[in-house]
Amino acid sequence: MGVPRFWREMPVRYNLIGSHCTGCDMYHYPPRAMCSSCHRESLGKMEEHQFAGTGQIVACTVVYQPQQGYEMHGPYPMAMIEMDEGARITAQIVDVAPEMVKRGMRVKAVFRKLGEDSESGIIYYGTKFTPVEELEPEEEESADSVEAEL
Amino acid sequence: MRDVSIIGAGITKFGELWDKSLRELGLMAGLEAIQDAGISSSDIDALYVGNMAAGSLVQQEHVSALIADYCAMAGAHVPSTRIEGASASGGLALRQAYMAVAGGFIDVAVVGGAEKMTDVSDSESAHTLSMGADEEWESQQGATFASLHAMMAQAHMTEFGTTREMLSAVASKNHGHAALNPQAQFPFPIKPEAVSSSGLVSDPLRMLDCAPQSDGGAAVVLCASDRAKEFSKKPISIIGSGQASDTLSLHHRASLSRMPAIAVAAERAFAQAGRKPADVSVAEIHDNFTISELIALEEIGLAERGSAGQLTLDGTTALGGAIPVNTGGGLKARGHPPGATGVAQAVEIVQQLRGSAGERQVKGATLGLLENHGGTGATAVVHLLEVN
Amino acid sequence: MSGIVSYGAYIPRYKIETTEIASVWGQDGSAMARNLNVFSKSVPGPDEDVITIAVECARTAMKRCGVTGQQVGAIYTGSESHPYAVKPSSTVVAEAVCATPYLTAADYEFACKAGTAAIQTCLGMVGDRQIDYGLAIGVDTSQSAPGDALEYSASAGGGAFLIGRDKVIAEINHTTSYTTDTPDFWRREGQQYPRHGGRFTGKPAYFLHVASCAQLTMKMAGTEAKDYQYIVTHQPNGKFPVRVAKALGFTTEQVETGLLTPRVGNTYSGAVFLGLAAVFDVAKPGDRILSIAYGSGAGSDGFDITITDHIENLDRSATVEQMISRMKIINYPTYAKYCGKIHMRSGG
């Protein structure tokens, strides 16, 4: 992807900036110039909105054949998340075993690498999501690491 | 508005055709269709070309001119237009040609669809396919085209109790049909158990739930019906054509278990034709993923909402059943060159309605339906064809 | 008095054990772990780097105290594993905390003390009233050559300190430094892994600079070891900090809260930030802390800190200890994949 195309969407990707139609109270992500519900009535009534970054998974799957750039993640969970304000976003769920990701799970936004052009190219950053609750039982400490020697 | 007929059809083998370029695929299919139609080049008023992604796959835009030139139409300055709507490109090209003839602008149009997917790596072509979804907000975020359909499958399974066996039955049925089609990419049967145990692509969709990446071309010749008998003994009428759009990204849809654009396109086609779903003898349905066939059947009204899976298990949509679907193998087994598929569907239905489908023939078929969609259902186009 | 107004810390969720690494190279893992006093180290996920960790730390620091991005006048990120050789990590952080465009930013490099150099800079700008708030960030995801001794300890993590004059939770009473040209550990431009002088990194490097800086700082502050509740030093392994603390007259009790390397590994520029964050998580008003960072090349930055009443108004419910206890064990192949030691052919 070209640099300007990525740069233009940085605030949207980094900070979950979307739009809010003050006419009908609908929230959009990514932002829209015109409300999908109110059409031209919404012109002049749209404002920027920074999403809180919390929401709930409404659909999810584990991807075994990765999208380009996602090869290192192993099978990874992709989800459709309904953010608390009502708008939906498609994003990877990170830092959790794929089989633990379920519909209805509460998740929160984290800042991660989306990919890069190449080893010498620009790095793309954006927002992924992680469960709000700690899900797995704590790992048993292995025998060697029980006491840190001082 | 005038009536429009299909007077010729042609199709290449679909598959990994290493020695065939994009332009050659277009020419091969076109020549066969023109010969089948019994027209000469000078009869052709316009070319309509369906192609999804020549720019990404073979670094070529201006595909309309490429095909016109390679098909020796450029010398006569025949107008040529390329139409793109992801995997619906072929069906959209058919509709544009149909409207031009119906509107009285032209008498004879050649509609060709072609795609060359294997000149780039698997990873590249898979990425190109995901451009049919929202590249910025779905693909960049890590979603593959299959993962979006996986979420649709999950939603359908949760809402309606659709099972793994039902999905497998779709693929197995289409392979059974393809075994009778020498032009198919995979002309051999596959047991449902093999589908259920094939490698996971995106849970719950497995390798054999997904159409392959294919090269291929297909073409039909359209003619104003009042002139059709000049050329063809068995012209097939286009009696209905409907098209609809929906949100590009799946996360902007109201429901994950539906593709309402297909329902709207079908309603429009049936309304124009004065027919209803129960009248359909045979159908070509866009099964890029097994779940897509099930949802499309429900949207069109060929199955009750939520029951397309059971219908498939019952054998209703297999050859010999009440409403055979994808007698040529569908996208799964016939192959899926995105630009060609919508036109390949027309070729199969034309064979059926002419009675020339050989071992795949649906006896007494009179009304055929083509359903072609792009992305996760953002573009849908439905045609109804009938024996004259 | 200027000081730390808020803090944020981050340790990735994966760890690899010393015994697992040793088994790959045919070494005695238990002996290695005891020798280094390092039993496991944190590993960043494949989509994490210094920038993503710096953003998490900065966002946490700011959310805790309610200071907004537009109030921040400077952001400095110190690391030896910045994702870019040219293009600052700090500007990405600035965008991600909504601090743009009215601020100054730059990246620091001074091996493991790049982040504390940033603290000193922010203190200067805040104290001189050029800015109201500055973010000093120390984070690393350092690479270590497979099979090298450093592979047992080079880990990932760090912290961010918001420096200001208002509602300071940790006053920085004194800061001073001890700097020489001592090439104990280095990485040339374009090289993936650093090289080091083996045992030369001990006495003439780490110990000389940390001890000298500590003595200088205590002299400036007029203090002795017993005046402090905590000492937090740079911690390349689990042994050096204890040894230098004892030599300075400190007890193991004063060292242990801020010594994370035995479980987390050496987070390089993040080490002192994480050690201090662990102390801030439990510190009480009036507690006094001596903190001495060390960066190869070489230098030490020292800080004499007093905790204020304001610390009790901060939400300290998300702690460094929680981050440590939620780390999940991974094996060497997964570690190699996550750390980029396995290179995919591009365009596959």
Summary, kept brief:
The complex is a heterotrimer of chains A (150), B (388) and C (348). Chain A is mostly beta strands and 150 residues long.
How would you describe the overall organization of this protein?
The complex is a heterotrimer of chains A (150), B (388) and C (348). With 150 residues, chain A is mostly beta strands. Chain A has helices at residues 3-8, 10-15; strands at residues 17-21, 27-28, 46-50, 54-63, 76-83, 88-92, 106-116, 123-131. Chain A starts with a helix and ends in a 19-residue tail after the last strand. Mean pLDDT of chain A is 90; it is low at 137-150. Chain B folds into two domains: 4-121 and 214-236, Peroxisomal Thiolase, Chain A, domain 1 (3-Layer(aba) Sandwich), CATH 3.40.47.10; 131-212 and 239-387, Peroxisomal Thiolase, Chain A, domain 1. Chain B is built from 15 helices and eleven strands. Chain B has helices spanning 22-37, 54-58, 63-70, 89-102, 122-129, 135-139, 145-160, 164-178, 192-196, 225-228, 260-273, 290-300, 308-313, 330-334, 338-354; strands spanning 4-11, 46-50, 80-83, 108-115, 200-202, 205-206, 216-224, 236-245, 282-284, 367-374, 379-387. The model of chain B has no long low-confidence stretch (mean pLDDT 97). With 348 residues, chain C is α/β, with parallel strands linked by helices. In chain C, 33% of the residues lie in helices and 25% in strands. A nine-stranded mixed β-sheet of chain C has the order 5-4-6-7-1-8-13-12-11, sandwiched between helices. A three-stranded mixed β-sheet of chain C has the order 3-2-14. Chain C has a two-stranded antiparallel sheet with strand order 9-10. In chain C, a hairpin with a 1-residue loop joins strand 12 and strand 13. Chains in contact: A-B, A-C. At the A-C interface, helix 2, strand 7 and strand 8 of A face helix 2, helix 3, helix 4, helix 8 and strand 14 of C.
